[in-house]
Amino acid sequence: MADVERYVTGERERYLEELQEFLRIPSISALPEHRPDVDRAAQWVAEALRRAGVPRVEVFPLEGGKGHPVVYGEWTADPAKPTYLIYGHYDVQPVDPVELWTSPPFEPQEREGRLYARGATDDKGCLFEAIKGVEALGRLRGAPPVNVTFLVEGEEEIGSPNLAAFMREHQDLLRCDLALSADGEMLSPDQGCLTIASRGLAACQIDVYGANRDLHSGSFGGAVANPLHALAQIVAGLHTPDGKVAVPGFYEAVRPLSPEERRDLASTPFDEKAWLAAIGVAEPFGEPGYSTLERLGARPTLEINGMWGGFQGEGTKTVLPAEAHTKITCRLVPDQDPDRILDQVEAHVRAQRVPGVRVEVRRFAGSARPYAMPVDHPALAAAARVLERLYGKPAPTARMGGTVPVAEFFRSILGTWFLYYSFGDPDTRVHAPDEFIRIDSIPRAVKGYYLLLEALAGSAGAR
Amino acid sequence: MADVERYVTGERERYLEELQEFLRIPSISALPEHRPDVDRAAQWVAEALRRAGVPRVEVFPLEGGKGHPVVYGEWTADPAKPTYLIYGHYDVQPVDPVELWTSPPFEPQEREGRLYARGATDDKGCLFEAIKGVEALGRLRGAPPVNVTFLVEGEEEIGSPNLAAFMREHQDLLRCDLALSADGEMLSPDQGCLTIASRGLAACQIDVYGANRDLHSGSFGGAVANPLHALAQIVAGLHTPDGKVAVPGFYEAVRPLSPEERRDLASTPFDEKAWLAAIGVAEPFGEPGYSTLERLGARPTLEINGMWGGFQGEGTKTVLPAEAHTKITCRLVPDQDPDRILDQVEAHVRAQRVPGVRVEVRRFAGSARPYAMPVDHPALAAAARVLERLYGKPAPTARMGGTVPVAEFFRSILGTWFLYYSFGDPDTRVHAPDEFIRIDSIPRAVKGYYLLLEALAGSAGAR
Questions:
Q1: pLDDT value at residue A462
Q2: Which residues from chain A sit within 8 angstroms of residue B235, using beta carbons?
Q3: What tens digit of pLDDT does each residue of B332-375 get?
Q4: Residue A55 has pLDDT above 90, yes or no
Q5: pLDDT at B366
Q6: How far is the C-alpha of B422 from the C-alpha of B428, rounded, in Å?
Q7: How far is B279 from chain A (nearest CA, A)?
Q8: Would you say A163 and A371 are in contact if contact means Cβ atoms under 8 Å apart?
Q9: Which domains are seen in chain B, by residue range?
Q10: CA–centroid distance for B4 within its chain
């Protein structure tokens, strides 16, 4: 412990310089004009892995070169020992609105102990910390105490469209005892947490069609169905007034929270008042009988993301519109299945039989299954001990409201669990202007990987 | 009768030439760049009235010259006789999409017995017929058999914003026994009708506000209220599922239809199947217990004209929007009051108390009171007789679904009734590309005014 502490403190300046080099590459995966930059970032990661001592490093083109490459690294210290895979990504979000950045997003700038740049936390910074953790093990011990592999993708910010196929094709390379995610966040800058679950996703659109053209509301209003009335009725029917999803069967596959899980979530530090104040909302609202943290992490939702039809300009237009639309996403929890949920939503919509209009339900790609780790997984206990040492406070479990499709890829394709073990601070403006990373948090996170891999070597492993 | 028939037939070519001159003036009141054209059209009307023999003609600037002028004409044949005021307008709708016109909208073209141009029917053609009817009375009888005044405005297509003020200011000039509207339509090219009512209008917008910004549906969904859910609930609550307006008190002031009025409406020729087929709708839908014609003309409505919030693009965006909006117009029938109706809508919306959001109701200007004439008004009987003579078929009564604010201005400001007596054919594409008038219908309509004013002179008048 004294060794690694002294070591990472001594490397601080080098870490900062290397990370800045990584952050200067504008690897925006969503924008075709940045393709050479995305490629450059992949090469940078490969080089960083080699520098860290990883003996086998390969860059795999995806989709015949049309996708952004996967960087694979493998350090087999002893074939008899367990293997831990570290997942991360080197691509970043676009920078718009660029005028809201205090300094240019790809010219990292240090201000008051923070380094500002796009990707500083998500995910270049967090990935960098994981690589440096493995590097530290090599420098201080000659090799990691377990086998380590890396899977670093360049398409996370565009929904990882080719990753599942890559994982299916390269199961031999990726086989591991546990995957560690270097993408994610801790509870606060002062406290770690163990994210044990992320929600799944199912998306669709409801289209309601009436007449063959927009009608004059004076000449037709009151005598033919209005698609906007029909849509409002359909949408209102998706929830009970008190906030439960009203789709029959929606909750049937939901694994109920055990009293222990509820106690656990209740003990997570969470300032609900501050959380509401930050978004300007007076009171929470959701499924009756559950706390806000339960509603966010452990219960499924059905949210309307958009709704539109007819006139949206200033003042009045007396139109009876020909069509009306709404977009829906459901966040799912174990053991809900996205296809089954969309079947149920569609059946419920059709059952409403609103007269005089035609109703269509379209499903969107991008479904993801929910993910949750068993709370008694030994790696969780090991990680909890490391986090408590690092932060000086116990690390509660947490459940992510959002969706990380890759978590479930590991489960379903490789049969392995996926441990969120990433040191992003939750206030670092990821995906937004002025993204940053706290410079002092970097050596701590490097130590975090060092200590966890050590601890996992000491435990029975995770088989 | 023989005289006037021979006369109007003989004038056919002159009518056509003069009307084409009128139609060549692009008097689009909505477009500021056409202001000189609108002025020119006002002068054209003034000149046409003088040519028709009207002794006093004046052009009144509106709103200190910022509005489009009113053309006033007065032919006092005998102060002891009743006075009939003819209302019409010389401004026209814009021509977009101009590429859909077969010939340029302000270069009138004759094709297959029709004259194509913007305003050919609405309202230059119909106004022209009224002026020519009075002209014919002068030419054949020296003077009209009653006193006739003209009120011709240039702002009808922009909602007559200054007309009520003008009417209040000039009550002395406008005092009359009955107003005749040269703006409106008949049942079909082959059959006249007596439009005895038009609906009123009340308009508002509902705005629903949640968080202070759009939220991530994964990080917040299910735990704070979604303005789109709240709006759907509010909008769905405005009607019962079977199509009645659910706002308490909404129907309380509605004058019930008498059995005679219902019989009357039921006898109006109306091909519901063809009407539905034209708009591509399979079945009618509306307030239970009423026919389509009753729903359109004699019952009030509440229609959603627009609704929007959140993401409207392609695919999925996992947003929980900060706000949601909807626009509403109600069509009103006697004796509903627009302000009272908006009070009731607002009270009903507020009574729903959807949790977690802030709801605002904004009222729009442009309210109009409903209008209906007593069915036993003697002028209706006189007009019915003239129309039966002209078309060779009885003229049923009809109720307009739309709103003509000026109808109620005459009632409330001048205390006079407003008789829809305009010869527009309902299929002439008013407000749309390729507007036209049937050339043969012009002499018939001129004769229509001639005969009605003669008939009204013979009756006891309409005091």
A1: 40
A2: 228-229, 232, 236
A3: 999 999 999 999 999 999 998 889 999 999 999 888 999 999 98
A4: yes
A5: 81
A6: 13
A7: 5
A8: no
A9: 2-198+370-458 (3.40.630.10), 200-254+300-363 (3.30.70.360), 255-299 (no CATH)
A10: 30
Alpha helices in A145-210 (DSSP H): 163-169, 171-174
99-118 in B: which are within 8 Å (CB) of A? none
**Nearest CB to A310; choose among B300, B301, B307:** B307
Smallest CA–CA separation between B426 and chain A, in Å?
A: 12
Phi then psi dihedrals of residue B339, to 5 deg: -65, -45
Cβ-count burial B160-196 (b if 16+ within 10 Å, e if not): bebbeebbeebeebbebbbbbbbbbbbbeeebbbbbb
The DSSP result for A4-50, as a single string, is HHHHHHHHHHHHHHHHHHHHTS--BTT-GGGHHHHHHHHHHHHHHHH
Q: How confident is the model at residue B107 (pLDDT cuts 50, 70, 90)?
A: very high
pLDDT band at A154 (very low <50, low <70, confident <90, very high): very high
Looking at this protein, which amino acid is placed at residue A35?
R
Confidence at residue A316, expressed as pLDDT on a 0 to 100 scale:
86
Task: Identify the residue whose tokens are 């060092």.
Answer: A450
CB burial string A28-37: b at 16+ within 10 A, e below: bbeeeebeeb
Q: What separation in angstroms does the CA of B419 have from each of B122, B173, B179, B426, B450?
A: 17, 19, 6, 18, 16
Residue to test with chain A: of B287, B307, B325, most A Cβ within 10 A? B307
Tell me if A316 sits within 8 A of B364, measured CB to CB: yes
Percent of chain A topping pLDDT 70: 98
Chain A residues in contact with B239 (beta carbon < 8 A): 229, 233
Preceding omega of B123 cis (within 30 degrees of 0): yes
The complex's ipTM? 0.89
**CA-to-CA distance for A32 and A98, rounded, in angstroms?**
18
- Residue A355: its chain B contacts at CB < 8 A? 243, 283, 285
β-bridge partners, A330:
A202, A302
Residue B460 above 60 pLDDT? Answer: no
Mean pLDDT in chain B?
95
On the question of pLDDT at A11 being above 60, the answer is yes
Backbone angles phi, psi at A234, to 5 degrees: -65, -50
Helix (H) or strand (E) holding A325: strand A323-332
Contacts of A233 (CB under 8 A, 6+ apart): A352, A354, B236, B239, B241
Write the pLDDT tens digit of every residue in B31-88. Answer: 999 999 999 999 999 999 999 999 999 999 998 889 999 999 999 999 999 999 999 9
CB contact under 8 A, A287 and B321: no
Buried b or exposed e, range A379-392, using 16+ CB within 10 angstroms: bbebbbbbbeebbe
Distance CA A254, CA A311 (A): 40
Q: Which two tokens stand for residue A181?
A: 């995610």
User: Of all helices (H) and strands (E), which one includes residue A310?
Assistant: strand A301-310
Reported confidence tier of residue B459, pLDDT bands at 50, 70, 90:
low
Angle, CA of A119, A123 and A127, to the nearest 5°: 125
Q: Taking CA A282 as the corner, what is the angle to CA B229 and CA B348, rounded to the nearest 5 degrees?
A: 50
Helix axis angle for A441-458 and A378-391, nearest 10°, is: 140
pLDDT in tens, B380-426: 999 999 999 999 999 999 999 999 889 999 999 999 999 999 999 98
Do residue B218 and residue A401 have CB atoms under 8 angstroms apart? yes
Which of A228, A236, A401 is facing B304, going by the closest CB pair?
A: A228
